[in-house]
Design brief:
The chain is α+β, with helices and mostly antiparallel strands. Among the domains are: about 70 residues, RRM (RNA recognition motif) domain (Alpha-Beta Plaits, 2-Layer Sandwich); about 80 residues, 2-Layer Sandwich (Alpha-Beta Plaits), CATH 3.30.70.330; about 80 residues, Alpha-Beta Plaits (2-Layer Sandwich). About 15% of the residues lie in helices and about 20% in strands. It has a four-stranded antiparallel beta sheet with strand order 4-5-3-8, with helices on one face. The chain has a four-stranded antiparallel beta sheet with strand order 10-11-9-14, covered by helices on one side. The radius of gyration is 23 Å and the shape is globular. It comes from Trematosphaeria pertusa. Pfam families: RRM_1. One of its GO terms (cellular component) is cytosol.
């Protein structure tokens, strides 16, 4: 439930549904600074009861002059109760979100144009609870997903224009992705733009090359420069938005950690999007960790060959940082 007035609390929401014959659990979301964040999650006794409740969307809330604003929750509630029964889903990556944007606002923006928009998830800092400025929007229709990629690019959500890219590979087998194959372009904040074929840039601006020395079946991400105060659960929370995680390991006293994903494309996306991201009190450096299937200790970071030098094109002067030369007189 969204767009709730500041005075509405769990008891009021619970009483609304109780008077309609529904026994529900309510979780009100709190804003760290202002208190009520204006939305809550309602768990019903059955999927049928929840579906029936959704039909009230847009009608007036009893004892209030506000209409119901209802949609399926994005995770942890009824939206995930029947994962095995659902058809395929298609996600997009949404970046440059302002701190004023919550999941309800984001999903409503897309649902107003795309009926198959199912849910939205905004990644938040586990300590402060503040938005990290990016998230994911899910659709049940690939056609709507593709339309959203082009039609919603640069559209304002809150006070900022959104930066949008695909969050899942175009190839349905779930194989490795890459630039031009459905992977989101890397970049600061956290999505940036780059030309086709150019290496993606990380959050802190460092290029992260994917080269032939990397095991195509490897899904382990090495996280270096990690603060000693970061826990495995906290580290997991920073990466779980990119895909299903097999395990997270922080060796004691090493200043690093390892995150292993189920799918390769999720690990690639995490490396490109989280490079240089502040976790704890330091910015992390990411690279491929050694797969369990390779020789050597698990989690050992790769030492890939350096990228080849770039030479000026034949007949073209080399590019210098000095700017244009003054003409000779």
């Amino acid at each position: 439930m969204g767009e709730l007035e500041p005075w509405i609390d769990e008891n009021f929401v619970r009483s609304i549904w109780y008077n309609m014959g529904e026994n529900v659990n309510v979780k009100m979301i709190r804003d760290k600074f202002s208190g009520n964040a204006g939305y809550c999650f309602v768990d019903f006794a059955s999927p049928a009861a929840a579906s029936k409740a959704l039909t009230l969307n847009g009608t007036l809330i009893p004892n209030s002059n506000r209409p119901f604003k209802l949609n399926w929750a994005s995770g942890g509630g009824l939206a995930d109760r029947s994962r095995d029964d659902r058809g395929p889903e298609y996600s997009i990556f949404v970046g440059d979100l302002g701190p004023e944007v919550n999941e309800f606002v984001l999903v409503q923006l897309f649902q107003n144009k795309y009926p198959s928009c199912k849910s939205a998830k905004i990644m938040s800092d586990p300590i402060s609870g503040m938005s990290r400025g990016y998230g994911f929007v899910r659709f049940t229709s690939e056609e709507d997903q593709q339309k959203a990629l082009s039609e919603m690019q640069g559209v304002y959500c809150g006070n900022r224009p959104m930066r949008i890219s695909t969050a899942t590979p175009k190839n349905k087998s779930g194989g490795p992705g890459g630039p031009g194959m459905g992977m989101p372009p890397g970049g600061g904040g956290p999505v940036g733009m780059y030309s086709m074929g150019a290496p993606p840039m990380g959050y802190y601006g460092a290029p992260q090359p994917m080269n032939q020395f990397t095991d195509p079946n490897n899904t382990t991400v090495f996280v270096g420069g990690l603060s000693g105060y970061v826990t495995e659960d906290e580290l997991r929370s920073f990466f779980q938005g990119f895909g299903e995680i097999t395990y997270v390991k922080i060796p004691p006293g090493k200043g690093c950690g390892f995150v292993q994903f189920v799918q390769r494309h999720a690990a690639e996306m995490a490396i490109n999007q989280m490079q240089g991201y502040p976790i704890g009190n330091s910015r992390v450096r990411l690279s491929w960790g050694r797969s369990q299937n390779n020789s050597g200790p698990a989690g050992t970071p790769y030492r890939p060959a350096p990228p080849p030098p770039v030479y000026p094109s034949m007949g073209m002067p080399p590019q210098h940082p000095y700017g244009n030369f003054a003409p000779m007189k």
